[in-house]
Amino acid sequence: MVDYVFERHLSGGILLPANKTTSTSLPIHRGFVPTKLVLAIHQHRGNAAEPVVAIGERVLKGQTVAAASGTPSAAVHAGTSGWVRAIEERPVLGGHGVRPSLTIVIESDGRNERLRDDDALTWPTDIAAQRDAIRAGGIVGLGGAVYPTADKLATPVPVKTLIINGAECEPYISCDDMLMRENAAEIVAGTLILADVLAAPRAIIAIERDKPQAMEAIEAAAQAADDARLKLAEVPTIYPAGGEKQLVELLTGEEVPSGRYPGEFGYVCQNVGTAYAVQRLRAQREPLVARVVTVTGGGVKKPQNVEVPIGTPIAELIALCGGYNEGVARLIAGGSMMGYALPDDETPITKATNCIIAALADEVRTDMHEWPCIRCGDCAMVCPSRLLPQDLLVAATTSDFAGLHTLGLQDCIECGCCDVICPSQILLTERFRIAKRSVAARTPIPVTSPGQD
Amino acid sequence: MRFDQPTAPHARPIVSVPVIMRRVLFALVPAMLCHTWYFGPGLLVNVALTASAALLTEAVVLRLRGRPTRYALRDCSALVTAALLSFALPPFVPFWIPLIGGAIAITLAKQLYGGLGKNIFNPAMVGYVFLILSFPVEMTQWLPPRMGDLDYQPLSVGEHVSYVFTGRLPAGLDVDAVTRATPLDLVKEGLRADRPFAEIRGGSLFGDFGGRGWEWVANFIALGGLYLLYTGTIRWHIPTTFLLGILTPATVLYLIDPSAYATPGFHLFSGATMLGAFFIATEPVSAAGTDRGRLIYGAGIGLLVYALRTWGAYPDGVAFSVLLMNGTVPLINRYTRPRIYGQR
């Protein structure tokens, strides 16, 4: 019998149309081999990896093409066999949008040849060495934050609880749901490896209530694993329950202080995809060369989840899913709440890409009139950080830096809940992002009051 | 292929200002019909006149301020102000009363402060208070309900409308013959004259809880309020503490001396209690902005309403109470900010 952990309090949040079922009717498409890979050497937080291959060299699937450099950092590997055709700057989506960044371009030879067993990564029995293996395996947080997992496993205080995040609260995204349905045993095994490395006395796998099939699969796998450390939690279907700090609040009742990380207080959160990648590294001796990506939206012909080699150009992935439908207006990397709108489909899938939405114009917010704020306070009701966005808006439009600090601008997690609930349809989150940049640069905040037209 | 690149979130907003305003108007329709059933066409005439004045003034002042009118006139906020003001007006007033009221509410309370979202005071209540201070005689021309068994012959629709626009009544009738004191008036004067409450409410204008007819209008207003709560247009904090703010002193004092104080039920279903709780005090712009602040704000209005009704000069006190509490909103907001996640 697996224990369940009961949910505690969650501040704010909003119930959104999930838009997930369109991509969960088909099983995960596996074994896709693209014609080329564009591998950014910097697709994680921390230091960029250092290229260790030369132009013209033949590489095999699983081979390290860029090694981790300092901490935090993570290695980058080839996802299929082929030749290194270029090491050059190409546009890649990173933490600051699409920017030219150094990439290793591999032309696939179509043979998808694996690294020979003698050359493949080994999984050490020594627990301290397992962290280095995870680092060499290029594993990073696959929930979207891409923080190098090995570095996140080095906590300054003893770990109280490992939280495996399978909430997947953001609309459209279903890659974690599908992975839990199909690879529950591997996820549970990976969870136990992470718990070993962390010496965590408790590991909670948290899944939102709208994923009963995933929950059933994970529960069965956890029962089979029969480990007293394993607990399950069914969390409410509300966005952003899967935010790291929100999930800690929801499962433990504790709040992570402003500007600090859960790891500093004995809580380590890892995504289910990350746990899966760790188990794959141990069992298959395969580094992080692929991830599950949800391809969905009204603008793509055959929405589904695909296990995609990292570095696959998005255009090839869309082609695999039947191509675009008439009227596709926006291409979003990520979900509809926090995702980034891509200029084109030339950029590659990175370790951070959990979802590609090809959206029709009526699925997304397009140019809309903003009314003046009527101070209804619904934004404060949904804010998971318990901020007062209506007051922050006034402080931002008047460049009131002291006010912004008191009102907690720095604690805004940019989840976008306030934008969606706002009856005046004010672009609050974008104004707060601009305000944060201006505060950092100590320049006046270039945002206008809504309702001026 | 190129795509557009706006920033996140990409999800569409789930509601808009005009939708919210239309919900408020929609929520008032049953009460409007009920009011018309009991008191004749007066309310509908008032709504038409205040709405025309409000929209026209809004357009003129926006032009004078050099502001665009395209969205401002279509957001239905002026119509909500007009409808709420109309409920506060007696149903039997000359046409210039609603016209002035609508114009004052929009100019003085709304546009002079900067338009939608900027008003410090509730526009409908500013319009009402302006009228009751300026035209006390016309503003007390209330009608009795058309209940058939009262010793009273109601005017026809034609006669009513003719009075509104020309000031003329059918031969042999004057305004005093047509209008009546409201139940709140009767209770106030009766208690002042040391008549026991039970005797006062034995009069023909009184129903089960409040005034005959009036209490049914109050029921339908509460029904509209429940609809607003159900649709998330308003939240529970202000109506709850508003009603508790009236009920608590009313119950305590009534239990102490049932002859000298009106019943809690009378307070609940008389005057503008329900309208105030669900439609006036919940006007978001001039109300407190935090959850805790709204509890305080609602309770403050409720207590003031009871105090003004019981010891003040006017029979009802919703308008003055709301305006007084509007003035305290910056202070309430300042001291009721929620604790931010992860901060002490």
Extended strand count of chain A = 17
Tally of separate helices of chain B: 15
Rg over C-alpha atoms of chain B, rounded to the nearest angstrom: 21 Å
Output the number of helix runs of chain A.
Answer: 13
Main structural class of chain B? mainly alpha
CATH H-level superfamily of the domain at 3-25 and 122-284 in chain A: NADH-ubiquinone oxidoreductase 51kDa subunit
Summarize the structure.
Chain A is α/β, with parallel strands linked by helices and 453 residues long.
Describe the model:
The complex is a heterodimer of chains A (453) and B (344). Chain A is α/β, with parallel strands linked by helices and 453 residues long. Among the domains of chain A are: 3-25 and 122-284, NADH-ubiquinone oxidoreductase 51kDa subunit (Rossmann fold, 3-Layer(aba) Sandwich), CATH 3.40.50; 378-441, no CATH class. Chain A has helices at 127-136, 149-152, 175-182, 184-198, 212-225, 244-252, 272-284, 314-320, 378-382, 389-397, 401-406, 417-421, 428-441, and strands spanning 3-4, 36-40, 50-51, 58-59, 64-67, 76-77, 82-94, 97-108, 161-166, 203-208, 230-235, 267-271, 290-296, 304-309, 328-333, 340-342, 355-360. In chain A, helix 4 (184-198) packs across helix 5 (212-225), helix 4 (184-198) packs across helix 7 (272-284) and helix 10 (389-397) packs across helix 13 (428-441). The longest helix of chain A has 15 residues, at 184-198. Chain B has two domains: 15-179, no CATH class; 182-335, no CATH class. Chain B has helices at residues 17-39, 42-64, 77-88, 96-110, 123-134, 157-166, 175-178, 183-192, 197-200, 214-230, 237-256, 264-268, 273-280, 291-311, 318-335. The mean pLDDT of chain B is 93. Classes of the chains: A alpha/beta (453), B mainly alpha (344).
